[in-house]
Each structure stands twice: as structure tokens, then as C-alpha cells.
Design a protein that fits this description.
The chain has about 270 residues and is an alpha/beta fold. The protein has twelve helices and eight strands.
Length: about 270
């Protein structure tokens, strides 16, 4: 597929992750534009990546694909500035958590296709989970182009847009849950008498190995857990304590809260 030009509109932390991934994947720097609020941020990105920071209206005019990577609460103001100036033939890709594609189509000229995307921070090491949903006017070609952009960052998946709030709760916010668990396990290792560096290395490699087994074996998590759990052994004792403290229920409640917050953001802004 011929490389299209891409503009990352609002190249903050998330936008920079996508921008850097595109360049690592061989996207030509002259085909990657970026917009920022602050001139010093624009200069920083230009120097770091050799790309061309431009004003929003220039990006909208020159790029084939417009990646909207601003915070959800800033998207309306941004589109008020240039939304109705987007020329025909562009593809708009939203990375704004919680915002439905309808939020954008209402603020764009008729017929502009909008794809909703949720990715996550492991994009920094090319291990992201990016989930793609088509909005109005989106064709198979648009979806394929979106996958081409995000596939270098990790895995991609297509789901109906109605599932995106659940995706946000599960994988968009998901890395934080694993970091939270790793933090607790490292603290426990220190409590048990291990040096912090030793506990950290043990937890990190254990997590990496467990994730690889879960990914590559095809087995369900319960089966892999049971394989570690000898009768009356140490693992069973630990799992019993986790269940006694309601960890499973707390995780379900936490993800429901994240899903509900995504819906709340949409309700407040649409």
C-alpha cells in the first residue's frame, strides 16, 4: 500500500507515541506532520524526529489522514477552529477516549469518514493493543489504512463502536492495572526481605513470562493458574487470600467504573 501522509493533530504524549511508531516503521519523515499548542513543543518534536510541525489548518489541508490525539475535552474547540474546513477525501481518525464518531461527523463536512481508535501506552515498545471501529462513510480501504498506521505499534483488532467504551476500560486503561499489581508485588517482595532491585527483576520477568505463556499457549488463564497451583501448596494459599480480599470482584468493579467514566465523558461533551 502506498504510504499516505499523516498529520498527528495534538502531538502530546499519546500523539508522540503514534508519531514515533510511524517513523520506526519506515514512514518517511516528510510524510508525517504534527501540530502542537506550544511553539517550544513543536520545536522539540521537529528536532527529535525530523518531522515538520505545522499549524492545524496546514495539516488539515496537506495530510491525507488526520489523527486527532487531543484530550477529549479539547476536541470540540479544536473542531470549531477547522472542522468545516476539512477538504473532501480526508480520513479522520480519533484517538479521543470516550468520544463517539458522531461527535466528529457533526463537526465535519458531510461525507468525511471517521474511524474511532483506542490504543495504549505499550505502543512505546511496539506492544500496543489498538482497537479500531468504523464510523459513518468508512470503507474497507479506510480500515486497512488505519490498520497500516497502527500495526507497527503492536496488535490491532476491529470491533463495533458500541464496544469501544468496554475496550477503553479493559485495554486502554489496562496497562495501569498491571503496573498497579506489579507495584504491589514488588512492595510485598521487599516486605518479605528482598532488596527492591531483586524484587523488581523477579516481578518483571515473571510478568513477561506469564504474558508470553498466556499469549502463545492458547490456554485460558484459569488452566494456566491451576497448573501452578499444587494441592495445599504455596500458590493455593496465596490465591485463597486474594479471593478472601475480594480481588476478583474489585477488578470487575474497577473496570465498570472505567467504562462508566468513558460514557460520562461522551455525555458531557456531546
Amino acid at each position: 500500500m502506498t504510504k499516505s501522509s499523516v498529520a498527528v493533530i495534538g502531538a502530546g504524549k499519546l500523539g508522540e507515541l503514534v508519531l514515533a511508531g510511524l517513523l520506526r516503521a519506515g514512514w518517511p519523515p516528510e510524510g508525517v506532520l504534527a501540530t502542537t499548542r506550544r511553539p517550544e513543543r513543536a520545536a522539540e518534536l521537529g528536532e527529535r524526529y525530523g518531522i515538520r510541525p505545522v499549524p492545524n489548518l496546514t495539516a488539515v489541508t496537506q495530510a491525507d489522514v488526520l489523527l486527532i490525539a487531543v484530550k477529549p475535552q479539547d476536541a470540540g474547540r479544536l473542531l470549531d477552529d477547522f472542522g468545516m474546513k476539512v477538504p473532501p477525501g480526508k480520513l479522520v481518525v480519533s484517538l479521543c477516549a470516550g468520544l463517539p464518531t458522531g461527535f466528529f461527523t457533526e463537526r465535519l463536512p458531510g461525507g468525511i469518514p471517521v474511524v474511532r481508535v483506542m490504543t495504549n501506552t505499550p505502543a512505546k515498545v511496539d506492544q500496543a493493543m489498538t482497537v479500531i471501529s468504523p464510523g459513518p462513510h468508512v470503507t474497507e480501504e479506510h480500515l486497512a489504512l488505519t490498520e497500516e498506521i497502527f500495526r507497527p505499534l503492536g496488535a490491532t483488532m476491529r470491533v463495533p463502536e458500541s464496544q469501544q467504551d468496554a475496550v477503553t476500560a479493559l485495554s486502554g486503561s489496562g496497562p495501569a492495572y498491571f503496573y498497579f499489581l506489579a507495584e504491589a508485588m514488588i512492595d510485598a517482595g521487599v516486605l518479605l526481605g528482598l532488596p527492591h532491585a531483586v524484587a523488581r527483576d523477579l516481578v518483571v520477568q515473571t510478568a513477561a513470562g506469564a504474558a508470553a505463556m498466556l499469549r502463545d499457549s492458547g490456554d485460558e488463564p484459569v488452566k494456566l493458574r491451576q497448573a501452578v497451583s499444587s494441592p495445599a501448596g504455596t500458590t493455593v494459599s496465596a490465591i485463597r487470600e486474594l479471593e478472601n480480599h475480594g480481588v476478583r470482584g474489585a477488578m470487575m468493579t474497577a473496570l465498570e467504573a472505567a467504562r462508566d467514566r468513558a460514557r460520562q465523558i461522551a455525555a458531557e461533551l456531546t
